[in-house]
Structures are given as structure tokens and as C-alpha cells.
Amino acid sequence: MKQIVTLMTDNVGMINVYIGDTKFGVFDQIDGNDADYCWFPRSTEKLSGDAIMAIGEKLNELNAERKGEAQSESTKVFADVHNLFLVSGRVCGDDDDTVHIVSGNDIGDAVSTFEEQLRHDSRYPDENGQVYINTSHPLSYAIDQHI
After folding, report:
1. How far apart, in whole angstroms, are the C-alpha atoms of residue 72 and residue 68?
2. Which domains does the chain have, with CATH numbers?
3. Please, which domain of life does this record's source organism belong to (predicted)?
4. What does the pLDDT look like over 77-109, one tens digit per residue?
5. Contact present, 107 and 28 (Cβ < 8 Å)
6. Is 42 strand, coil or helix?
7. What pTM, to 2 d.p., does this model score?
8. How do 22-29 and 37-41 pair as beta strands?
């Protein structure tokens, strides 16, 4: 079964974001009814690919609804995340592991994207930008195994 991103409105107006059965973050209005909805991730993991598209579309929908520009009210948006992978590792010289959720055609493609992201984001890249990979799994497997 493919994992999906589910965005559901709760009884206090926040939008909870799930990947499979795992809560990943929340949309909320910082300043109440007059503010646009903002994305608050629950963890330091980064979303990419279809999940980001689903979140962006939902933010646009929510903010259009608030401004009276929406065609219809929606409480759920789904995105297929079968091409997302959980990859962790670090750049040489950095003591902290980094975990990203990365889109890719396959695990090799996802690892390459992760390495690029780490080289770009790291404060401690060595001259070769060597990245050490700790784990790489399809996101659905990582969720099932509680990785």
C-alpha cells in the first residue's frame, strides 16, 4: 500500500499533517483569524517532492478560503509519496547527523539529492564535500519500521 500525505482539520482550526499514520506537522494561524496559515513542522526532517507540493497547495487553499476566494471548502488533500525516501548522514567535519525526506526516482537518486542538500546546507564541508550516508530507506518502510 502506498503511503500518502493527509491533511486534516481539527476542532480548533489547525490542520494536522500525517504521512501514513505518523503526524508530521501542523498548519496554524499565528495571529488568529486575520493571519494566513503557516506551516509548522513537528520535526527537523525536511519534506520534498510530492509532500511539499501538497503542503503548498493546501496553504494556498486555506488562505484563499480565509479571504473568500475559494471555490469550495476542503478538509483533506492527498499526495502520493511512493517516491519519497528517508536518508540520513553527515558532511565530513560535522558532528551532527541530518535526516531529510527526499524525492527521487529510486534510492540512488534520493541519496544523490541528499548529498547535494548536505553540501549546500552544511557549516562544515571539507574541501571535497565528502558526505557519509548512515541510512537510506523508502519512506513507507521507514514509517512501518518506526525508523
Report:
1. 10
2. 4-80 (no CATH), 84-144 (3.10.20)
3. Bacteria
4. 444 567 778 888 888 777 777 888 787 888 898
5. no
6. coil
7. 0.48
8. antiparallel
